[in-house]
Write a structure and sequence with these properties.
It is built from seven helices and nine strands, in the order E-E-E-E-E-E-H-H-E-E-E-H-H-H-H-H. By secondary structure, the protein is of the alpha+beta class. The protein has two domains: 136 residues, Immunoglobulin-like; 79 residues. A six-stranded mixed sheet has the order 6-5-7-8-1-9. Strands 2-3-4 form a three-stranded antiparallel sheet, with no helix packed on it. The chain is elongated. It starts with a strand and ends with a helix.
């Protein structure tokens, strides 16, 4: 299926033409920096998936896959940098690949003249467009949206701080238990690490009671977010 924005006399034509041959989508544009691109579902390492098409600084077409966009909070910035795509360059098209390999193209411009395609209101996101027009990709997008919401509410620094505090506390416990072992059998590393924690562990800043309280609060918050994530990803799946 080809999808595009509704024609409008005030729209600025971006010069992208599109055609479909069998399961392949052929996109091209002229101008000072002509380019062409062929998309097929064979390009997808995972199915289902979505992909965004944009031009890099050299005017060459590059794809950014949903598989890399939905697993990291700053994934879009990383993907643009990795592909040398300026943030100001617009996405030209989005592709959806269903589990059976069926592919769909959302051309982010007014519908081409004389080309049969579904039309949507200008300004719609590729996610909402594919949710409405491609039933075979809805469950995948539902999970992706839920994961993005989860990642947006998780602060890595807080998670690392809670993890360090828990490791320090457990290290202190192991070091204390090692004192019950006869000295000739006592692991030297347990004593060394116990000394490290005593000298510069997190417990030098806060009491053990506060550390435990903070760890419990952080874990409880994460479990609540994860429950919401698993519930959301299953809705309409």
């Amino acid at each position: 299926m080809l999808i595009a924005f509704e024609p409008s006399p005030t729209s600025i034509e971006n010069g992208v033409s599109v055609s479909q041959i069998a399961s392949r989508w052929l996109l091209s544009a002229g101008g000072e920096r002509p380019w062409s691109f062929e998309f097929s579902s064979d390009l997808a390492a995972e199915k289902p998936d979505i992909a965004l098409l944009a031009l890099n600084r050299m005017g060459q077409p590059r794809l950014i896959w949903g598989a890399e966009l939905f697993n990291e909070r700053a994934a879009m910035a990383f993907a643009l940098s990795r592909n040398d795509i300026p943030p100001s360059n617009p996405f030209l098209a989005a592709f959806a690949v269903e589990a059976d390999g069926t592919s769909h193209c959302f051309l982010m411009q007014p519908a081409p003249v004389g080309v049969d395609c579904a039309t949507v209101t200008d300004g719609r996101s590729f996610v909402s467009v594919f949710q409405d027009h491609v039933p075979g990709i809805r469950a995948y997008l539902q999970k992706a949206i839920a994961k993005r919401a989860l990642l947006g509410n998780v602060t890595y620094a807080d998670s690392l701080a809670a993890l360090e505090a828990q490791v320090d506390l457990l290290t202190a416990v192991v070091a204390a238990l090692s004192e019950l072992i006869p000295e000739i059998q006592r692991p030297v590393l347990a004593q060394v690490l116990g000394g490290v924690v005593a000298q510069c562990g997190v417990s030098t800043l806060h009491s053990n009671e506060k550390l435990v309280s903070d760890i419990v609060a952080h874990k409880a918050r994460l479990r609540g977010l994860q429950r919401g994530y698993f519930t959301a990803r299953e809705e309409n799946a």
